[in-house]
Amino acid sequence: MQHPPSMDRRQLLRAGGAFGLAAAAAPLLAAPARAAGGTLSTTVTDLGPALVQFALMSGVTVGDTVYIGSRNLSPTRLIALHLPTRRVTAVTDLGTGHSVQALAVDPTGRYLYAGVLTKADEGLPNLFRWDLTTPDKPAVPVGRTEDRDVRELAVAPDGTVYAVGGVPGKAPALWMYDPGTGTVTKLGVPDPNATLARAVAATDTTVFFGAGSVLAGGDGASKASLYAYDRAGRTFTDVTPAEMRKDPSLRELAVFGDRLVVGTSASTERARLAVMDLADLSSYTVTSTAGTVVKNLATDGERIYFAGEGGLHTYTLRTGTVAPLVHDGPDLGEIWGLDHTGGTLTVVSGYGFVGEIATASGACVVTDLGAAGAPVSPQTAMGIAADGCHVYVGGNNVIARHDLRTGSVANLRAPGEAKDAELLDGVLYTGQYSGQGMWTYDPSSDAQPHRLAAFPSEQNRPLDVSFDPVNRLLLVGAQSDTEGGGSLWTYAPGSGAKAVYVNPVDRLQPVRAVASREGVAYLGGDNPTAQGPRGTLVAFDPVAGHESWRLDLPFATGVAALAVRGRHLYGLTRRGGFFVVDVPLRRLIHTADVRPLCPGFAAMTTSRGVVYAVSDTTLFRFHPKTFAVTTVVAGIDGAWYSGPHVGVDGHGRLYTLRGHHLVRVDDRPDR
What we know:
The structure is a single chain. This protein has a domain at 9-52 and 377-669: Methylamine Dehydrogenase, Chain H (7 Propeller). The chain contains three helices and 58 strands. It has a seven-stranded antiparallel β-sheet with strand order 33-34-35-36-37-38-39, with no helix packed on it. It has a five-stranded antiparallel β-sheet with strand order 1-2-58-57-56. Strands 4-5-6-7 form a four-stranded antiparallel β-sheet.
C-alpha cells in the first residue's frame, strides 16, 4: 500500500484534464454484478483521479529558460519555464515512454535533446529533439537506442549526441546519434557485468561512460566503472579511480574546462566526488561526501555544486573540502536539475517547483510549476492505505491524501517514493524508496510527513509493509538493489524500537511480500537471478529474529503477494501462480494457475473473511473453502508504476485504482 495545495473533488477532476471530465460524466456507482459461483453484490464508487501533479525527472537551463521533463505522466512531455516571468511558456508532448530522465542541449543552444524511459521496448523512438528557436512546434523523434531506456545524454562540442541507459538483463552500451546523417550507432559495451549506465560526458576527442549496479546488483554484477572512449580510435579504456571501485555505481559526469568531475552512488559507505585532469586522467583527487549520492553537477569556476539526498552541497576546488549549501527556502527534496548562472543556482525539485538560490546570500525564490502553468494530470501510483476517514495514494515525491468525508484531496510532500504503507489509528507509516527508511504522517499534528526511522541505506527498496497485531510491530520487506538479496525491517510504533534482519530468505532473494499470523511473520522471497530457488516462503520470528521453518515453492517465479485467512496462508507468484499453505501443518495444500487474471505482479488483502487480490488487469477473490477464484471487477486496469496495490478500510471496503482513478469496491459475496 502507498500513498501529496488542497483541492475539492470538482477541482481535482478539472485538474485531471479530459480524463477527469470523462470520469465525472460517468456513473459513480456500478450496478450490482452477477458472477459464476453464486449471487454477489458489488458496488464500485469512483472517487476521482488518485494522484494529480506535474511530476518531473529532469531539468536543464538554457539561457533564461528551464526545460523540464515529466515523470510517470501520459503523455510524456517537456515544458519550458521562463525565469524572468516565472511562467511556463511552451509545452511539447513526446508521446512514448513514461518518463524523461535525460536532457542535454547542443553547443549552439538551439536544440534540446531528450531521452525517455519505457516499461517495455515497443520498437518506438526513445530519442527526441526540440528546436528551441521554434518552441511552438513539437519535438520530433530522431532515433532509437536498443537499450530501451535512455538515462543520460551528452552533446560533444561538434554536436554529436551520446546516450547511455540500459535494459533489464543486458549490459548497457554507449550509443551515438549523428545529427548530420540522422543515424544511431552502437559503439560498444565497455563493462559486460554492469547492469545500468547513468552517466556520460563528451569532449572533442573523448566520450566518458559511467556505469555500475544501482539496479540488479549482487550475483557478480560490477561496481562503479568509468571508461574513456577514444572517438578517433574507437576504443574503450578503463579509467575508474581506484577509490571509487567499491561504490555500486557511477552516478554523474561533467566536463568543466580542463577537468572531468565524477560522482558516485554509494550503499554501505559514503558517495564520492572525483576531480580528474583531462590531460592526464591518472591525476585526480577523490573526496568522500556526507551522503549516498553525488549528482547534478554545476560550477562557478571556484566551487562545484552538487545534489545529494540531503539537499545541495559545495566542493571548493582550492581546498578540496565539502560543505552543505545553506539557503532560506524550503526543503528541496529529490533534485533533478541544477545549473549555475551569474551567482544563482537554478534547482529543479521533484516536489514540482523550481528554486532560484543566490549563492552569496542563500536567498531563495520558489516557483510552483502547477501555478506557473505546467499541465498537471493524473500520475501513475505506487500504493494505497485506507481507513474509514482517509485514503492515501503514493507517487513520486508526493502522497495524495483523500478525505472520504469531504472529497477534498491534499498533496503531501515526501521525498522519493512511498512504495507501501499502513494506517494505524489514523497515523500513516510508509516505506520510502530509495534508502529513505520509514516515514510517518499524523494528520492531527504534522504539517507534512517526516522521517521516522532509518534503516541500512543499501536496503533501499521497501516492497511490502504490514502490521503484526500480536507483537505490535510494523513489518517491512525490502530489496537491496545494489548488493542483491534483501531484508526484513521491524518497527514498534509504541516504543520506537527497530531492528533489521538482512537476507532472512537467502543472499539472492529479497523479501517481496510479508504477512503475519499469531505473531509469526511470513516472508515471500523472489529470486531475480538465474540461479537458486525461484521463490521461498520463510516463517520468521520478528521478535527473536530467527527462522522457524521454510518451504521452497514449486513455481518458476517468486512470490508477489501474501495474505492470511485463518490457518491458511494464501500467495500469488509474479506470473499468476496461486498457492495455499496450511500453516499449522507447514504444508502446501493447493496450487492453481490464475494467469488469465494475474499475468504479473499482484497485491493481496483479507476483508470480511475473504482473501482478495488485484493484478494489473483484474480485482478478484478466492473462495474460503474451495479456493476457487472469482472475478470481482474485470478490466480494472489500474495505472500503477511499480505493481498493483489494494487497501481495505475498517468497514471491509476495498480501495484500488481503475485506470488513473481511485475506486472504492464494496463487495459482499454470497458464501
